[in-house]
Design brief:
The structure is a single chain. The chain is mostly helical. It has 13 helices and three strands, in the order ααβαααβαααβααααα. It is globular and about 60 Å long. The N and C termini lie far apart (100 Å).
């Protein structure tokens, strides 16, 4: 008798669940695809787990308790071709070693030679240190991924990489603006150069650049930490690119855009404006020099810095414009190699080949070690 009652209650409960499910189907439009089923599940507070290769649509409403959390991302890299992996490994390993060794030589040459203990070379050594750190945030991870054939990066690791990428990228930009101001003072106010660019002011300028970069990095992190739901876990890049991560997020983009515009103004617009203003004053001052030899000598002190500025901002602007035109994220990743890897690698060559003081300091450093 008990078994009979139990079976009747079981069939009754099944009928009740079936009735509820049929009512849900009647109130919802018939899903014509997997996306429609997922949307229907979203409306009824069902959580969709995310796995590699799964692309889901953002829910029609944002309720944090109904959203999944992402524990890891997959960096798609530059190429999926197995035959290209050894070539990419050797290429980026060699470029990274050249970048680190070249910038370390600049730092050692400036610190070991008392003739180079001037504001210009003080800023140059800090720029070299920032270049080493900037490259080290992305390239070692990519080299390790190629070697281990694993492209997984944890959520915390992705945020950490993105934070340091923003920090040292912004620091590079601000130091270039500080170096432009140094050249402006040296050419337009040569008699007061050592008074204006005293060691205290130089240290404060570097410290202010670092603190502003840290603020920018943390502001960007605060935006990303609010993102709890993503359309995909595959990032079509070789590192956690901030713009691509924001594009994958399901959230209100209005506040994110405001913060990103503010971050872009601090890390891009203000340094570029300072550089343009400094070189406008420099060119105006040089044009007032009567002799051609005097003009060339005055402008030659800015040649290396101007080359680095054009290389850094030119490649960055090129990547931004190409990403706006191109619909392929993989092509954007290839283009971003220029300003993330190539530019820091070329900076020591630009300053050493165009600067006699650096050449002499390096020869003295080599002679001491040998």
């Amino acid at each position: 008798m008990l078994c009979l009652l139990f079976s009747e209650s079981l069939y009754a409960s099944r009928g009740a669940y079936l009735t509820v499910f049929l009512q849900i189907l009647r109130t919802e439009p018939e899903p014509s695809s997997l996306t429609g089923i997922r949307r229907m599940m979203d409306r009824h507070s069902l959580v969709i787990p995310q796995h590699r290769g799964s692309t889901v649509q953002c829910p029609s409403y944002i309720e944090p308790q109904n959203l999944t959390s992402v524990s890891e991302f997959f960096l798609m890299g530059l190429s999926d071709d197995p035959e290209l992996q050894p070539l990419l490994f050797g290429l980026f390993l060699s470029m990274y070693l050249v970048t680190v060794l070249g910038n370390l030589l600049i730092i050692l040459a400036v610190s070991s030679d008392s003739h180079l203990h001037t504001p210009m070379y003080f800023f140059l050594s800090n720029l070299s240190l920032a270049d080493i750190s900037f490259t080290s945030t992305t390239v070692p991870k990519m080299i390790m991924d190629i070697q281990t054939q694993s492209r997984v990066i944890s959520y915390v690791g992705c945020l950490t990489q993105m934070s340091f990428f923003m920090l040292f990228g912004c620091l590079d930009s601000l130091l270039l603006a500080v170096m432009a101001y140094d050249r402006f003072v040296a050419i337009c106010h040569p008699l007061h150069y050592l008074i204006i660019m005293n060691p205290r002011l130089c240290g404060l300028l570097v410290l202010a650049s670092f603190l502003i970069s840290l603020l920018v990095s943390q502001m960007h992190n605060s935006v990303v930490l609010q993102l709890t739901y993503f359309k995909d876990v595959e990032i079509s890049h070789f590192f956690c690119d901030p713009s691509q991560l924001l594009n994958l997020a399901c959230s209100d983009t209005f506040i994110n855009n405001i913060v990103m515009y503010f971050v872009g103004a601090i890390s891009g617009f203000l340094p570029i404006s300072g550089i343009f203003f400094s070189y406008y004053k420099i060119v105006s001052s040089i044009l007032r020099v009567p002799s051609t030899g005097g003009r060339y000598k005055a402008f030659s002190t800015c040649g290396s810095h101007l080359s680095v500025v054009c290389l850094f901002y030119g490649t960055g602007l090129g990547v931004y414009l190409s990403s706006a035109v191109s619909l392929s994220p993989r092509k954007d990743a290839v283009a971003s190699v220029v300003y993330t890897v190539v530019t820091p690698m070329l900076n020591p060559f630009i300053y050493s080949l165009r600067n006699r003081d650096i050449k002499r300091a390096m020869w003295r450093l080599f002679s001491k070690t040998i």
